Structure formats: structure tokens, C-alpha cells
């Protein structure tokens, strides 16, 4: 008997994967060349699965800001925000997020995962309810497990099902926090946020939107889906990450409720983990400024999105329901065949994400692309050609 016995099935599955030329869960970027290119398995590869939506990881201004902070403030803070880990730059970034969202307050966390853990596990207490979309990210589920609220799921993107459950909750609806995402990371579909916000208002509930994949991507100013559909006033909390459009690591929460500030020192993931390093904060501040400067990168991203979505559609592939920076080809094939297809893409110099059930909607395997403003048209065309070579049966 060993503590490791329970991992045997996982180890066996991994051993089977090891026989493949490349294992989708153990890809090594041998050399990163740019936001969209790397050397993988000794081969020059186009990266089409990185969530680097604005391509800012190699922006010279962000790099310079990070280098300056590294030189002047050191490699790490070596402490949590509540102890020695709050530098002036952490506060400046919080102010910048507050300004960007026109909110009285913002809180910066070390990752987006921690932002969800901290906010959700603390805001909703034992008398409260969290009503979450079934397809929410693992960090939202983990936050629910960490907290003490009653947790209820509603069917993915089904506003009718959400309303039915709120109705059943009766008076408790006013102590219910609805949790949805702007863009869902599996199929790239958007939440029906106008409808959800209207229901939230009708029942006097609360609404949190995780804009991890929509920050910098949607909305005239890039604030996300709530901005794009004009319901920001009805959203109580926005959570987001720095690890996608902002090209670094960290997370944040903003709210039009000044009371959010009272929650800061009650959140264990905020109190008991070290704060982000000065260089990460510096590059994030710079990336946020670039994101706010204009919508040129956003326009470029959406041109690329449409080029890829239409290209894959013309091959007859089944895709997520609408074009978005996450474009997923939905496969009818077995896991073994999906693995083989993923490997063939890699052999053709295209890296995408392979997503397997049970993590995927409908139990399908997905070849999931994520598109960047930094992709060239030529790279998008190479990605489409690589898919064409797979000869997947049309949907
Ligand atoms: N929320 C969502 C919807 C996400 O997709 C992710 C990351 N994939 C996170 C939160 C966590 O973000 P981070 O990588 O900053 O921990």
C-alpha cells in the first residue's frame, strides 16, 4: 500500500502517451522565438495555442519596463501583500485598473487563479449561494470548494435554466452570486450577458464576470464582454488575469462597490502568498497602458480571428458557435485518433492545444487554437493548410 497507488491509472495513461512522438501534456518549448513562433521537437513551429491575444510578451516597451524594475527593485518581493510585499508599483497598478474600469477600488493578486480563489471563497459565506455556469474554469470550482457557500450549477449559457434556479431560491436570490465568464475557454463562446444581467437585476442577485479571455479582446476600450454589451453597471465584480492579453502573470478584481476594499484582508490567497515580482508588475502596467491606448491591436486580432475561423469553416470542420480568439475544432474521433491528429499538426509545424474529455463540453476531443494579434496572415494560412492536410471528415 502506498500513497502513490491512486496515481497509477494516471501514470499508465501518461506512459501510453510517452510512446507518441510528442505528448500534448508535456510539450517543451525548446526555444521561444517570438509571441507566435518557437522551436519544438527541434522544429520551427507556429504557436497557435498560447492565449497571447495581443502578442505583448515580446513588446519592447514591456520588456524595458520589466528590466528597469528588475534592476532597481530586485527579483522578487519575498513577502505577501499584507506583509512586506506591497510596493508602490502594486498600488499604482491597482489604481490603474480602478481608473480603467472607472471603479472605486481594485485588488491585484499573484495569479488569476488566486483572484478567483480569494474573491469567491470570501465574498460568498455560509448563508449565501454561488450559482455558476457549469462550464466555468477550474479556479472558480476550486474557489467554491474552498469557501462555505452553497454551490449550484446552471446549464452552460442557458439563461432560462439560470432563471429557473433563481426562482427556486426565493428570498435567497438576493444573497446569490451568479458567476459567468466573458469568453469560455473551451469553445470560445460568449456568455449571453445581456440576458443574464437582466435576470440578475430582476431577482436582486449579484453578478461576477471572469473576463480572463475577454480583457483586451472585447469592448471598445478593451474592458471585456460587459463593456461590449453595455451592462457594466450591472456587473458587481470583474475578475481577470494578466496571463493572457497582458502577457505576464497576475490577476485582479474590480468592483463598483467601494466595500470591496473591506474584503482585501479577509482573503487567504491574498494574505498567505507572496506578491507578484516587481518586473511582472512593471510589464503589466506597461501592457495595460498599451491595451488602453487604442484598438489597433484589437482590430488586428479580430481580422486574424475571422481569417482563421472562416478558413477552418471552409474545410467543413465543426467549430465553436461563433468566431472568437479561441477557435476550437470539435472532433468526432476517438481520443487515440485525436492524439494522432494533434501530433500531425505538430509535425507540420503548428502547435495547438489538444483538449480531451471529461474536461470538454459534450465529451468531444478538441483541437483548440488561440489567435494573436501578432500572427501574420501567412501564419494563419499555414495553420489552415495544416488542418486541411489532416483530412478530418467534414461535420
Ligand atoms: N479564469 C479563467 C476563465 C481562465 O481561463 C484562467 C486561466 N486559464 C484563469 C482564470 C486563471 O488565470 P491565471 O493563469 O492567471 O492563473
Strand content: 15-25%
- Label the overall shape: globular
Full CATH superfamily name of the largest domain: Type I PLP-dependent aspartate aminotransferase-like (Major domain)
Radius of gyration: 21 Å
Distinct small molecules: 4'-deoxy-4'-aminopyridoxal-5'-phosphate
The parts where pLDDT drops under 50 for at least 5 residues are none
Q: How many β-strands, per DSSP?
A: 14
**Biggest beta sheet attributes:** 7 strands, mixed
Element-by-element helix/strand order: HEEEHHEHEHEHEHEHEEHHHHEHEEEH
Fold-level CATH name of the largest domain: Aspartate Aminotransferase, domain 2
Number of continuous helical runs:
14
CATH architecture title of the largest domain: 3-Layer(aba) Sandwich
Q: What's the CATH C level of the largest domain?
A: Alpha Beta
Task: Indicate how many domains the architecture comprises.
Answer: 2
* Percent of residues in helices: 25-40%
End-to-end CA span: 48 Å
User: What is the average per-residue confidence, as pLDDT, rounded to a whole number?
Assistant: 95
Strand order of the largest sheet: 4-10-9-8-7-5-6
Amino acid at each position: 500500500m502506498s500513497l502513490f497507488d491512486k496515481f497509477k491509472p494516471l501514470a499508465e495513461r501518461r506512459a501510453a502517451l510517452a510512446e507518441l512522438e510528442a505528448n500534448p501534456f508535456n510539450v517543451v518549448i525548446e526555444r521561444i522565438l517570438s509571441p507566435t513562433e518557437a522551436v519544438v521537437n527541434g522544429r520551427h513551429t507556429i504557436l497557435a495555442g498560447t492565449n497571447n491575444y495581443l502578442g505583448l510578451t515580446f513588446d519592447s516597451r514591456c520588456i524595458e519596463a520589466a528590466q528597469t524594475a528588475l534592476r532597481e527593485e530586485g527579483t522578487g518581493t519575498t513577502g505577501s501583500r499584507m506583509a512586506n510585499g506591497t510596493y508602490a508599483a502594486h498600488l499604482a497598478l491597482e489604481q490603474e485598473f480602478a481608473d480603467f474600469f472607472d471603479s472605486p477600488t481594485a485588488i491585484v493578486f499573484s495569479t488569476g487563479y488566486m483572484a478567483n480563489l480569494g474573491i469567491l471563497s470570501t465574498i460568498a459565506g455560509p448563508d449565501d449561494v454561488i450559482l455558476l455556469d457549469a462550464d466555468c474554469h477550474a479556479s472558480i470550482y476550486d474557489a467554491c470548494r474552498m469557501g462555505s457557500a452553497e454551490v449550484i450549477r446552471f446549464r452552460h449559457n442557458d439563461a432560462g435554466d439560470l432563471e429557473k434556479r433563481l426562482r427556486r431560491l426565493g428570498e435567497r436570490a438576493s444573497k446569490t452570486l451568479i458567476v459567468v465568464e466573458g469568453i469560455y475557454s473551451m469553445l470560445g463562446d460568449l456568455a449571453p450577458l445581456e440576458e443574464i444581467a437582466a435576470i440578475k437585476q430582476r431577482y436582486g442577485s449579484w453578478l461576477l464576470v471572469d473576463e480572463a479571455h475577454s480583457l483586451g479582446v472585447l469592448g471598445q476600450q478593451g474592458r471585456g464582454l460587459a463593456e461590449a454589451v453595455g451592462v457594466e453597471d450591472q456587473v458587481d465584480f470583474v475578475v481577470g488575469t494578466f496571463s493572457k492579453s497582458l502577457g505576464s502573470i497576475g490577476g485582479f478584481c474590480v468592483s463598483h462597490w467601494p466595500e470591496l476594499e473591506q474584503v482585501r484582508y479577509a482573503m487567504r490567497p491574498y494574505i498567505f502568498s507572496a506578491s507578484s515580482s516587481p518586473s511582472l508588475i512593471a510589464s503589466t502596467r506597461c501592457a495595460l497602458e498599451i491595451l488602453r491606448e487604442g484598438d489597433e491591436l484589437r482590430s488586428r486580432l479580430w481580422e486574424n480571428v475571422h481569417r482563421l475561423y472562416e478558413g477552418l469553416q471552409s474545410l467543413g470542420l465543426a467549430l465553436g458557435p461563433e468566431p472568437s480568439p479561441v477557435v476550437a475544432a470539435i472532433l468526432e474521433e476517438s481520443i487515440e485518433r485525436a492524439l494522432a491528429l494533434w501530433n500531425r499538426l505538430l509535425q507540420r509545424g503548428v502547435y495547438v492545444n489538444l483538449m480531451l474529455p471529461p474536461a470538454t463540453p459534450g465529451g468531444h476531443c478538441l483541437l483548440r487554437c488561440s489567435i494573436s494579434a501578432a500572427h501574420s496572415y501567412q501564419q494563419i494560412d499555414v495553420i489552415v493548410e495544416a488542418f486541411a492536410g489532416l483530412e478530418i471528415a467534414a461535420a
